[in-house]
Amino acid sequence: MSGLGIRIADGSFIDNSWELTVHVTDLNVERLLRVTGDTSIGGVIYKLTEALDVTVDWSDHALWWPERNTWLLRTRDTLDASAVNAAARLHFTPMHKPLHIQLPDLQIIEVMVDFSSNVFKCVLILGRELGIIHPEELSFLRKPPARRRDSSRLSARSRSSATLNNNRRAMNNSSSLRSSSTHGSSRSIEDGGFTQPYSVIVLPSTYSTHQNDSSLSSNAFTENPYGSLISLENSPAPHQAVVAGIHRPRSYTDKCWINSGWLDSSRSLYEQGVREFDLALLRFKWFCFYDLNTKRDLIRINELYEQAKWSILSEEMDPTDEEAFMFSALQLQVNLQCTLPQCDLANGGDITDDIDAALNDLELTLEGGGGGVGNGTGTLSRGDISSLPELCDYLRVMKPRRFKSSRRRLYCVFRDTSLMYYKSRDDRRAAPIDCFNLRGAELQPDVKIEDQRFKVKLFVGSSELSELSIYFDSEEQYSRWLAAFRLASRGKTMADNSYETEVQGIQVFLKMQHRKQPAVDPNAINIQPADYVAQRLFKKYKPKHLATRILEAHANVSHLSLTDAKLNFIRSWQSLPEFGIAHFLVRFRGGSKREAEHIGVAYDRLIHLRGGAAFRTWRYTSMKAWHVNWDMREMCIQFDTEDVFFSSPMANIKIIHELIGGYIFLSLRSKEKNETLDEELFHKLTGA
């Protein structure tokens, strides 16, 4: 048997065994294990734990192969099947490690997460821990670099924290929540654009209770195990250093840099270069928010409100001045209501409210679309059920190049999903001057209440979009026509029972922008405009004027409760033209090789942008297939009318594929409360 220790030329032993080097990160030691190609991964772990002779629970440990950037998690696979040879140097390391996570409200928490599972499952488990319902709408985002010119320097990340400190891990497993002042004073956000220390809330480890849970259902995310240990229903003011480090995009290209940082949902954190104590941003990635419930969803509503608020304050969204003051007024109302006692919607409330709500939903479901002809303001009359409702009125129309950019007052008729216009009402029996089908059209509202300007830009067409501007005389007229245009762009008519709801939502949005006398004494409240409006407004208004305008706008929303103020903020955010559009820099096949172009990925369409305006639009409803050509790093999408090919010089093309596939997946959710998320289907639709 002594001959078994004799080595041959290739370094292996005469019995075909060889030595495998394994580094144990917890103990910072290495062991040489005598193995063969037939040794299983589980056998290697067994040999290693026997060789260490340390009484420790190794159940959370696994083998990591740094050179191949992969986990060896299939314990029954052999070393030959895993392509592991004598040149490999494996790490035996915990799968659950501490990670710093910045929530949408900018709070930074430290939690133990599974670095070996894919990001999608990791976010689902984290959502359950935090009490966020429907966490499938969120994902992890890398912190954008402070400046694009420094991106190459910032991408070379330091790995000084790769070796765990045993004392620090013991602190992470503490059973109580405490402020991490010990390392908060010595640690700064990596790639964060600022170097000031930030405080971290350390949450107790709970992974042992769910690490083997493979069935994550939608109704499972209802409890926050940390209870009152962390405030998520109403967020505290973030650290000033964190606010100072917010990325403030100055152009569409800057927005592209933000979206290029999304992590791949099908790969683990470790495989994407994320290490323990690194900072990851938890953000809503897919902007189709399912079943917001004011009794069960207080945490989700608050986090949505916070992400919407910071997207406006950081100028990621660009509302008009009046809209900006409306958002600041809602934010002020939220802050004021947070200081007052609120009724417990989650545990209290009258059961009759639930019954009334259910009856209202049933009434809307059973209410069929009527017919009739609109009057001057577009008010619908419910008449013959066999006819479709329509709007007709004199409107000012401007179509560049045809009318030489001048407005013409024409008689417009909107029926089904088509807009037609004539010289006068008497010409309606003849052929119209022009007719546009608004199915799939892009809408860009342009409203200024003070000047009584109510305008909607329409971008219509199948290949290249034609621009058409419509001017309205009143809020009532604008609300009804815009609601009809929005439904038509989604392939619906005014006969749909959501038409009146759409009209009311637009009217509420406009009403909140009116100027009124302040409802609170300006001397009784100290408003810091910098906390409520974007920096660009300071170039147009003095701080005292900004505070006055905020209080005037607040008079419209001073009656709202805390939850209603947040919901109105979210709904108004959803009404902005830029809402939910993720920007990417791309090059189309056959296009210019010198200049990249922009596309926007929305919840229902793909938009080709030029100069910030929609140039072409492709709806997902007309999409047949989509995949990635990995040899060319090119996205290939087949639509009913054409095939689209593009690559991205800035982002991993998989990010765009995953966004589209994720929206398709989320659109398949039904109202079954006990529905189990189909993770396999998600990865099939997003896996490229």
Q: What does the model show?
A:
With 688 residues, the chain is α+β, with helices and mostly antiparallel strands. The chain has 16 helices and 25 strands. Strands 15-14-13-12-18-17-16 form a seven-stranded antiparallel β-sheet, covered by helices on one side. Strands 22-21-20-19-25-24-23 form a seven-stranded antiparallel β-sheet. Strands 8-11-6-7-10-9 form a six-stranded mixed β-sheet.
List strands and helices in order, with pairings.
Blueprint (H helix, E strand, L loop, with lengths): L17 E7 L4 E7 L5 H12 L8 E5 L4 E3 L16 E6 L1 E7 L5 E7 L4 H12 L7 E4 L9 H5 L10 H7 L5 E2 L1 H4 L16 E2 L37 H5 L7 H8 L19 E6 L13 H16 L7 H18 L12 H16 L23 E9 L9 E8 L2 E5 L11 E4 L4 E7 L4 E8 L5 E7 L2 H15 L9 H13 L31 H12 L7 H13 L7 E7 L8 E5 L3 E6 L2 E7 L3 E7 L4 E6 L3 E5 L5 H15 L11 H8 L2
Parallel strand pairs: 1-5, 6-11, 7-10
Antiparallel strand pairs: 1-2, 3-4, 3-5, 6-7, 8-11, 9-10, 12-13, 12-18, 13-14, 14-15, 16-17, 17-18, 19-20, 19-25, 20-21, 21-22, 23-24, 24-25
Helix pairs in contact: 8-14, 9-13, 9-14, 11-12, 15-16
